[in-house]
Amino acid sequence: xLALDVEKRLGDFSLQASFDTAxxxxxxxxxxxxxxxxxxxxxxxxxxxxxxxxVLDETALFDSQRGINVPAHxxxxxxxxxxxxxxxxxxxxxxxxxxxxxxxLALDAAERKRITELLDIGHLLARRPGKLSGGxxxxxxxxxxxxxxxxxxxxxEPLASLDTARxxxxxxxxxxxxxxxxxxxxxxxxxxxxxRRIARSVVRLDAGRVTAxxxxxxxxxxxxxxxx
Amino acid sequence: xxxLSPDEWIAVRLSLKIALVAxxxxxxxxxALAWLLARKQFWGKTLLDGLLHLPLVLPxxxxxxxxxxxxxxxxxxxxxxxDHFGIVFSFRWTGAALACxxxxxxxxxxxxxxxxxxxxxxxxxxxxxxxxxxLWVFLTVTLPLAMxxxxxxxxxxxxxxxxxxxxxxxxxxxxxxxxxxxxAAIYTFVxxxxxxxxxxxxxxxxIAISLIALIAAEWLAxxxxxxxxxx
Lengths: 228, 231
Prior knowledge:
The complex is a heterodimer of chains A (about 230) and B (about 230). Chain A is built from eight helices and eleven strands. In chain A, the strands form two sheets. In chain A, strands 7-8-9-3-10-11 form a six-stranded mixed β-sheet, sandwiched between helices. Chain A has a five-stranded antiparallel β-sheet with strand order 2-1-4-5-6, covered by helices on one side. With about 230 residues, chain A is an alpha/beta fold. Mean pLDDT of chain A is about 90; it is low at about 225-228. In chain A, helix 2 runs parallel beside helix 4 (about 135-145). The longest helix of chain A has 17 residues, at about 165-180. Chain B has about 230 residues and is mostly helical. Chain B has one domain: MetI-like (MetI-like fold). In chain B, about 80% of the residues lie in helices and about 0% in strands. Chain B is built from eleven helices and no strands. Chain B is globular, with a radius of gyration of 20 Å. The termini of chain B are far apart. At the A-B interface, strand 7 and helix 2 of A face helix 6, helix 7 and helix 11 of B.
């Protein structure tokens, strides 16, 4: 699946991370400021590491030694951002269709139907993002990333901007996604409870370093109070 | 009541033609420059920004004179364009359009630049992760989101071009049917005995055109705005 070994310096902060993921959902877990989003941005191609390599399914996305840096728009990595980042000038339908059109994929009506039903967003298609609730916005953002048929789905704190009720509303959709969509995922969060319900394996990141790699037991050991 | 003489009509049509051509030709350059100033850091950026605003602060006559010595028949740029491309500016309506375009340019660039600076760049990152290369990001995200600023810039540039007087008359003179715009025609009528009626008619036309442009711009900007928030 994904194999990476990267280094990046940003001002006083330095990030050094190395891990491999299998399929399924991998949690990227750690407190705020640990470098989780920086790492996700490097996987997506929005930030270039200073050194190292990122390989997805045997294809090098980044390799400083070989001078490879595949631009973000050719990586086919779906990215669900914390704030959704839906295009405000496009309808929900056009937002959902954006990745497919930009990636030059043929229209697959069955796939679109399957995903809009999975996320229960069929009734929102004609609306503008400005008219959506926070939970609806995140579901559309997940649908938009899925419909470009990504090789990997990055979910970067997808629930962080939602209140507890909205989180409860969305988690079942994400679990269904994990079980039915068949796309490997990296789920970035500082919230152990959330990750316990969705992830299979865990990479723990602290202050720019990988401090543990393992299963869900890493979440139990975590000092939840310290990272709440 | 408001019946214009053929000569006055010619001045009105010429003014519209000059202002439209000036605005249309300035648009691609203005858009490119606005994007450059909003997004890129480069050597000489402050100087470029200053040069861009010069027509706004210089006396228009000075701008007209500078155009005359550079784009006139014997000016270095004017001679080059005339010899190699057959493009002549001096004492032609094209020269009037050039003068109007130069005078309106800072007013075109500024609102577009501000609009581009105000765009959430994270939306552009999102577009990139969805497979859009830089050109498509610009066309499908940056440009539509900057549309209200673009419309404001176009209207300001058009209005400036329509009313431009000093630079135009200095550069290409005041030739009826060729370079005599509404402003120049009003000026001429005011100078001659009995020209008040004609000047008054043209003044009304100028007010009408400006009002229509403003209302159209307001309507377009509102439409572009509601597209972000409405259903």
